[in-house]
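Re: that backbone. Tokens:
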């Protein structure tokens, strides 16, 4: 059996989401205002939800390899990195330009869900 890097990414994103969530809850509130803290928590929430979705997609891809599942997994990875990553960068640096690329990550997450849906709809095991 080949290595499933999608599951590895999902696990790493999960570890990072829990760690960043703890940082946001126990240290960041002293450094930033409430609005920035909410942005940070939005990044953590989206990262965690989509890490779980990536894990599911990785399991589906492992069970029934499909180009659509592979596309979905990569779109989840890119989406998490850009969406959550840009929010973290914005909050930690205060540079608003980071927030300008957040919607690109959101679009990637939408594409990921659409690829997952299409891959599941067109799968032979239905």
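Recovered sequence:
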């Amino acid at each position: 059996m080949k290595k499933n890097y999608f599951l590895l990414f999902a696990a790493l994103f999960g570890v990072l989401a829990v760690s960043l969530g703890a940082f946001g809850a126990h240290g960041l509130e002293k450094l930033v205002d409430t609005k920035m803290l909410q942005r940070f928590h939005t990044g953590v929430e989206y990262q965690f939800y989509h890490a779980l979705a990536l894990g599911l997609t990785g399991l589906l891809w492992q069970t029934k390899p499909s180009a659509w599942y592979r596309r979905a997994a990569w779109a989840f990875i890119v989406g998490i990195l850009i969406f959550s990553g840009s929010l973290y960068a914005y909050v930690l640096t205060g540079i608003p330009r980071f927030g300008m690329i957040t919607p690109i990550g959101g679009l990637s997450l939408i594409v990921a869900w659409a690829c997952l849906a299409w891959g599941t709809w067109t799968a032979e095991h239905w």
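The chain has one domain: 5-121. The chain has a mean pLDDT of 95.
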